[in-house]
Amino acid sequence: MAAGAGVGRSTAARTLGGYGYVSPDVRERVLAAAERIGYRANALARSMSTGISNTIGVIVADIANPFFGGVVRGISDAAHARGYDTLVLSTNEKLPEEVAATNVLIDKRVDGIIVASAALDAASAAHFEQARDHGIPVVLVDRAVPGLELDAVVIDNRAAARDAVERLIAAGHRRIGFVWGPPVQERPRLRREMVDIAARNLWTDGERLQGYLDALDDEGIVFDADLVMVGEKVEENARVEVRQMLALTDPPTALFCTETDAMTGSLQALRDAGLRVATDVSMIGFDDSSWARVLEPPLTMIEQPMQALGTRAAEVLFGAIDGQEPSVELHTLETRFIERASVAPPSDR
Amino acid sequence: MAAGAGVGRSTAARTLGGYGYVSPDVRERVLAAAERIGYRANALARSMSTGISNTIGVIVADIANPFFGGVVRGISDAAHARGYDTLVLSTNEKLPEEVAATNVLIDKRVDGIIVASAALDAASAAHFEQARDHGIPVVLVDRAVPGLELDAVVIDNRAAARDAVERLIAAGHRRIGFVWGPPVQERPRLRREMVDIAARNLWTDGERLQGYLDALDDEGIVFDADLVMVGEKVEENARVEVRQMLALTDPPTALFCTETDAMTGSLQALRDAGLRVATDVSMIGFDDSSWARVLEPPLTMIEQPMQALGTRAAEVLFGAIDGQEPSVELHTLETRFIERASVAPPSDR
DNA sequence: CTGTTAGCGCGTTCAG
DNA sequence: CTGAACGCGCTAACAG
């Protein structure tokens, strides 16, 4: 490269790297030569010498999940605007894979990590300490990890769930099903057990379950374990569980669904039972999508600011990369309650 | 690090790097020391000396789009299985951004690139030559680029569209709308113009439009430009355009939607017009989702193997990385036609 | 089996 | 303003 323009290699490096002094004419010559031979500076070598990789790592459960897709989009847009690229790793919600992913990112010397962690408490989050020991800031997104001293960008799942369930109650419902419960085999009968289990599972799920319980408490409605789905968190199981709820002698008149697949599974169960949304069973779900608008009746939903979660997390991360003292706070973004037509007063079937 | 275990640095490197000979006891000692001080090998330095980054680059229009989310998941799973990580870049369907993304990947010395390109022809795909000049294999996914000598992993959009439209025709329809047409301002009146424009736009869109025309030809149905949506490819415009079609004196009795948002937009237009799916207007769309099953009636859809497109593209790429001669072929994956209940004989409103 | 040595391609002094 | 020399942390040959 240097030879191509008839200058020393460091002069070439200076013009291409955009640092130090270079006379205009030499500059032109170098640029022309670079263009001519299709020269591209080796970012790896640059990173080695500067210690900056201009890459951030993102760890999520599943990039194919539209929610994470939105979050990652927000992150990568913000990163791109600052000249950073994004390495995305999926963990299938498995902690060991999350640890491995973190190590990969440490090895590749990313400048920062954003993670929607599957860790339930600080004790199972030692891998983030590792990253920090290597000078790599970490910020959590979508999920906080209780006890972990890390910035986290989240929504208030508990409040959003509570609000939704309270609206159901305000419409007159007292038998409200909770779909996407704790992934346990045995259904906990006691309310206390339920809370314990919620606290020992995925943070978002636990918070939403708590919000549901909060709303019941506020209105003095007694908790019934039969109205909480348990088992594997997949659409088919939601369908099965809701079908069972609907067959109860005192079935739910409303359903609160904490995720898209919980909603579609529930909808299938309604159809299986020959029941209609709103008229027979009221529904509210998390994560709005354009489909929710075209159903008949259109679905009342809680919208999460997916991209904003990502961009905000990136901003916090870049703050740390720029050397700001980590504030270690919970950055809470607003959800939006979108009222449509899937909630009506209970019917007495 | 080396000092920590009391051995030479290359011995340490050998055990950690997993190459060359190391005696078991020394090996243990090194591993222990590494563990103790939380040592992690610098992958950047390794890449510099080996020329292998163990990273592949993926370029798509928008990682938040569930279709690309699925494709990327397939790619990253296959890559992960081979010890590679994935750098994902979104281009917003803009060619200049795609060129910039390619350059970033070249700079970072990725070992291969998979791209859903926005390029319409070989002439606008010089950036891939650049990558190849740097020894980086490129494989296309989701979209072929006519005239470009590159492997491409796609589905047969034209055949799938043709098949779907023929089924509509078989059900008795002769007025069939095409939703998600060419993004032009002025509606082309002539069939020939329409074909020309289709060929000059996004490959998948053009192929699907061709398939639509093929089906009409087969059955001797005369093409009517008024039944093809034009303008910006966003849900709201689909709604507007379909509303106009429905207001025609001889309106469509069936709609073929080439994408999710085209489908939801069309569904909104039907509702605006007080029309029902199947009973009043039959519908078939691309890209199945769990929502399509819970609509009433459930939607007949064409399912694309999103993840398989990704994994297959990765396999082809790794073949090239392993030094196989590029076969330069079109790898075509099967779509699945999912018959549900949104197609019925035409009604005479 | 192990230590030594020479690059990989940059950024960064430091003379000139 | 420009060129030469060194180091980033690792792999790859090569002696020992």
Description:
2 copies of one chain form a homodimer. Helix content of chain A is 45%, strand content 14%. Chain A is an alpha/beta fold. In chain A, the strands form 2 sheets. Chain A has a 6-stranded parallel sheet, with helices on both faces. Chain A has a 5-stranded mixed sheet with strand order 6-7-8-9-11, sandwiched between helices. In chain A, strand 3, helix 7 (126-133) and strand 4 (138-141) form a beta-alpha-beta unit. In chain A, helix 8 (157-170) runs parallel beside helix 10, helix 9 (191-199) packs antiparallel against helix 10 (203-218) and helix 11 crosses helix 12. Chain A is elongated, with a radius of gyration of 25 Å. The interface between A and B is large, with 55 and 55 residues. Chain A binds a DNA duplex (16 and 16 nucleotides) through residues 7-11, 13-14, 17, 19-23, 26, 41-51. Chains A, B: This is LacI family DNA-binding transcriptional regulator. Chains A, B: Residues 1-50 form the HTH lacI-type domain. Chains A, B: Keywords: DNA-binding, Repressor, Transcription, Transcription regulation. Chains A, B: One of its GO terms (molecular function) is DNA binding.
Topology:
Two copies of one chain form a homodimer.
Chain A (H helix, E strand, L loop, with lengths): L1 H4 L3 H9 L6 H14 L5 H8 L4 E6 L5 H16 L3 E6 L4 H13 L4 E4 L10 H8 L4 E4 L10 E4 L1 H14 L5 E4 L11 H9 L3 H16 L16 H12 L7 E4 L2 H13 L9 E5 L3 H5 L5 E4 L2 H16 L8 E4 L2 E3 L11
Parallel strand pairs in A: 1-2, 1-3, 3-4, 4-5, 5-10, 6-7, 7-8, 8-9
Antiparallel strand pairs in A: 9-11
Helix pairs in contact in A: 5-14, 6-7, 8-10, 9-10, 11-12
The structure holds a DNA duplex (16 and 16 nucleotides).
